[in-house]
Amino acid sequence: MSEINSDTVHERIRQSFSRQGAMHTLGAELTRVSQGVVEIELPFDEKLTQQHGILHAGVISAALDSACTYSAYTMIEPDVSLLTIEFKVNLMSPGKGDRFLFRGEITKPGSTIIVADGRGYALSDGPAKLIASMTSTMMVVRGREGITG
């Protein structure tokens, strides 16, 4: 793999994130992009809860999936893309907080398959509370019509 320009990678990820209707609907913000690590944050919103008033598992999964996938984007060439092909989520604690942080980190980079691990945290007064973890597998996509950065 050739050397990847970090400024170009950051801009590519920011532009791609801005096109994600799902993340926009959730009120999510891209807050950190570095080599192999991406963080996404979102505020608590009653519209994103399940019947018990806690953050819905689908919202947690979507945010972790995006964080893991974008962490993989920091590892690939600008002319290829990614698609998630598998993930597993463990919900560890109720999603109660003022804000939520979702961090994706590369576990195993690759030229065809990339594996990332994600962690979701509830943020309020006091220390961050781990609410979920994810292991995600992405497929590197080259030359497929309609699938770009």
From TrEMBL:
InterPro entries named among the record's database cross-references: HotDog_dom_sf (IPR029069), PAAI_dom (IPR003736), Thioestr_dom (IPR006683)
UniProtKB keywords: Hydrolase
GO molecular function, one term: fatty acyl-CoA hydrolase activity
Catalytic reaction equation(s): a medium-chain fatty acyl-CoA + H2O = a medium-chain fatty acid + CoA + H(+); a long-chain fatty acyl-CoA + H2O = a long-chain fatty acid + CoA + H(+); a fatty acyl-CoA + H2O = a fatty acid + CoA + H(+)
A Pfam short name: 4HBT
EC numbers, comma separated: 3.1.2.20
Highest taxon in the source lineage: Bacteria
The keyword DNA-binding appears for this protein: no
Span of domain Thioesterase: 52-125
Family of the protein in this entry: Belongs to the YigI thioesterase family.
UniProt protein name: Medium/long-chain acyl-CoA thioesterase YigI
